[in-house]
Amino acid sequence: MSTTYIQNAAPEQSPAVDSDRSRAENSLARKLVAPALVLMLLVTAFPMLRALYLSMFDYSLTAPDDKEFVGFQNYVTALTDWLFWRDTFTTVFIMIVTVAFELVIGFAFAMVMHKVIFARGVIRTSILIPYGVITVVSGFAWQFAFSYQNGFVNSWLPFIDTDFNWFAERNSSLIAIMASEIWKTTPFMSLLLLAGLAQVSNDMLEAARVDGATWWQRLYKVILPNMRAAIMVAVLFRALDAYRIFDNIFVMTAGANKTESISFLTYRQVIEQFQLGIGSALSVLLFLSVLVIAFLIVKLFKVDLADARQEN
After folding, report:
1. 90 near 259, Cβ under 8 Å?
2. Most buried residue among 43, 147, 239, 298 by CB atoms closer than 10 A?
3. DSSP letters along 86-109, please?
4. Cα angle 156-138-197, degrees, rounded to a multiple of 5
5. What angle do CA 182, 195, 193 make, to 5 degrees?
6. Cα separation of 157 and 175, whole Å?
7. Partners of 69 in beta bridges
8. Among candidate residues 216, 248, 219, 245, the one with its CA nearest the CA of residue 231
9. What is the pLDDT of residue 18?
10. Beta bridge partners of 60
């Protein structure tokens, strides 16, 4: 006669306890975020509402008394102007190329910083130095580097003539702008990805290694899936920042050779031509497009933040 013994399973946490804990955590999160949210609204709400208000008028600082309400006409003017769409394409192109390069290079840097043992602090500090350089200073430095008169890029590239002028036409100007952007902000990407690498379980990597998985298989099957949340945050932050690019274009080309971004076009309308109405409409469109990009990136990665935090 055989006897069956039933082992006591670990007591499961009741849904009520989970719900109470979740409500307590959400309440604490709201209390912690509330001061920063209120301050942010106080600082940003008035400029945003003011821009929305001004975008409804035909308003120029050269004729402040001729302010005329035109409704959504400024938006129609912007959306039907080829210049707006050309600059939008330029901005999106710069964003996609720079973020793609920064993601690949930043991941390589993150792997080095994560694995290195000797002189770890020195290596991490060295990699992060470009990010500490002021963007305007970086732009001037890269403008000098790409100069055909006294720069060094032409002499370093054997397939480029020494007298080649990078800033003489659109494509080469964009290459110079994107190179400066990638050099400046790749350390930021690598820092975010390094935080994601720290969340990858060594036990999972060791189990995959024991099962005979190659390095590439471990990368695609273990490392990248477990870093999805960190990759999404890194891409989101950098994409939104790259879409608002202004400093490098202002310093290196001043918008010449069709290298204007949306931010630079807005600057021209407001600061150079004193057109507050159309300039405000462009700033509102820029803000809305940033929201759309953020929404698309979050939807693309399909990250469940609760799973990423390993919540029950």
Report:
1. yes
2. 239
3. HHHHHHHHHHHHHHHHHHHHHHHH
4. 90
5. 30
6. 14
7. 57
8. 219
9. 58
10. 275
What pLDDT digit, counting tens, does each position of 142-194 carry?
999 998 888 889 888 888 888 889 999 999 999 999 999 999 999 989 989 98
Amino acid identity of residue 58, one-letter, is D
CA gap 227, 207 in Å, rounded: 18
Q: Which CATH superfamily does the domain covering 74-308 fall into?
A: MetI-like (1.10.3720.10)
State the CB neighbour count (10 A cutoff) for residue 110: 24
Q: Does residue 49 carry a pLDDT above 70?
A: yes
Q: Give 124's contacts (C-beta < 8 A, 6+ positions apart).
A: 113
Alpha helices in 116-169 (DSSP H): 120-132, 135-145, 153-156
H or E segment and range at residue 58:
strand 57-58
Distances in Å between the alpha carbon of 111 and those of 22, 51, 92, 221? 34, 44, 28, 16
Residue 232 in tokens: 């999404």
> Are 256 and 167 in contact, with CB atoms under 8 Å apart?
yes
Q: Using 50, 70 and 90 to split pLDDT, how confident is the model at 128?
A: confident
Q: Locate tokens 């990368």: which residue?
A: 219
Average pLDDT over residues 34-53: 86
**Max CA distance (Å), the chain:** 103
Residue with tokens 């057109």: 275
Residue 42 corresponds to which amino acid? Answer: L
State pLDDT tens for residues 256-310.
889 999 999 999 999 888 899 999 999 999 999 999 999 999 888 876 655 555 5
Alpha-carbon distance of 27 to 75, in angstroms, equals 40
Mean pLDDT, range 24-36, rounded to an integer: 87
Tokens of residue 31, six digits: 């209390």
